[in-house]
Design a protein that fits this description.
GTPase_ArgK (chains A, B), homodimer, alpha/beta, seven-stranded parallel β-sheet, chaperone (chains A, B), GTPase/Isobutyryl-CoA_mutase (chains A, B), Rossmann fold, hydrolase (chains A, B)
Chain lengths: ~325, ~325
Amino acid sequence: MPRPVDVGDLVSRAREGQARAVARLISLVEDASPHLREVAAALAPHTGRAQVIGLTGSPGVGKSTTTSALVGELRKRGKRVGVLAVDPSSPFSGGALLGDRVRMQDHALDPEVFIRSMATRGHLGGLSWATPQALRVLDAAGCDVVLIETVGVGQSEIDVVSLADTTVVLLAPGMGDGIQAAKAGILEVGDVFVVNKADRDGADRTVRELKHMISLGRKEIQGAMWRPPVVKTVAARAEGIDLVAEAIDAHHGWMADRGVLEQRRRKRAESEIEAIALEVLRSRFGDVRGGTALEQLAKRVVAAEIDPFVAADELLASLDRV
Amino acid sequence: MPRPVDVGDLVSRAREGQARAVARLISLVEDASPHLREVAAALAPHTGRAQVIGLTGSPGVGKSTTTSALVGELRKRGKRVGVLAVDPSSPFSGGALLGDRVRMQDHALDPEVFIRSMATRGHLGGLSWATPQALRVLDAAGCDVVLIETVGVGQSEIDVVSLADTTVVLLAPGMGDGIQAAKAGILEVGDVFVVNKADRDGADRTVRELKHMISLGRKEIQGAMWRPPVVKTVAARAEGIDLVAEAIDAHHGWMADRGVLEQRRRKRAESEIEAIALEVLRSRFGDVRGGTALEQLAKRVVAAEIDPFVAADELLASLDRV
């Protein structure tokens, strides 16, 4: 028998900072439990306060170490901090690998730090479904700052950007040339750039190339121009992390003054609403005619009998009939 | 005035191998032109023949060089080859960066090779929308093999896996330790592994670690077990590329014998149909009440007045009324 859930009590205890209540609420929203909507409704009035920071970069640049050091810096400043570590490998493995989560152990016993590994799902909803809900839990639980750390480039990075107020992009010297960096799309998504492992050879060259490429590629937002700073760090020794925190705050203030923050958050809510609505519709596809409609249509497409657009029309038509 | 489009003529010319007709058809499907459905219908009867190979790996492992070398190998074997180079940076930049496409110049004048850079879109449809349609064009144009090359990990990699018959994962020595590799989810997605730049220090160690991790993590498919081979290459000198081609063919034969190929292709068609159906629905969201419904709902979510699930319900309800 499933444990009975008192959502109101859980939310109260989460707001008092009880880690178990926070963890339980995240599980309830992450698993799309029957209590999902009740939890969402109970959280809503307490949301909107947390500053959301995305951290992204290729494997090997030291994201987890930097996240851990940044948590330390924010704790020094008296902030309550949430961390969502998003792992795109999970759709295939069914669970997050904990290898470098170990580095976050520094904060495991701090009652003002909440750390959660998120498994993205192997479907279209992906990160855009579960992570915003976990973010709402941490926000309602009184986190001043939520850090969302993700691996690599591509859709998960795009999703993090769409969730964050400020996106921090990490690089390291010698991880490939400038074109490779640009190819990964990092120039357009970064509000703050960090060159980590700056004690290595080539750090100054990486900073120089990055600044040059940034100067070429920036666009105006709301008629104003944010010039992303490039900060050098050695996260393993917490060097330069105070400067990263300051750069993040400078960006936050810049956005707030110009209405960009409000705009980003509205866009975030739009994506969230849309993802939920699409997920609701998508769940209906599987139900159509006992789940066989999609499979039958796919067989006909593979057999070159119909094209996928005709198949999609038939799928939607059968949806309307249920 | 837009150019008039004779879809039937374009398809005929594409099937004769005329590169301009192929390029034009891809543009028509990629831009979701008014002719999209007409093109899809005209292509459908000619699809289902191409062998689809996905190539993925982190930036810097030599994907473009390997793709180019593999095209050369397939040409030696008399195959007509299509290449789709998918660039996840494009949602932000509005166009693909051409930096390392230059390495494909070897094949630019070969009339039996079609190369196309794909811009993924900055929305949920993403790669799962445009790339399958471009794949159908190349398939109908008589390509024996279509190579889909993508950058990095995350959603774009997942999408490539869902499109390909065989997924080739590239690594290079010294790109990070084993846990980093596993974190990126590559072990579960690879049918064939390639350790490129095998003339570098540490290549044998990378191969050894990879084989060990593969041996730990494999799952049965349809009651059978495919053991992904690990092939060493120096793509810049075309060394080992013949072995890559043989490993791909071995995997293809293995799947065909066991019905796995048919199953993968049906799953691919299901994803494609579903993505199209969701995109159709999604386009309706923007139309609801002159495009303001979603924006107004988002504002109320940001103001902590309603939760996003209630907002999604209202969005869907307003959709039903139009």
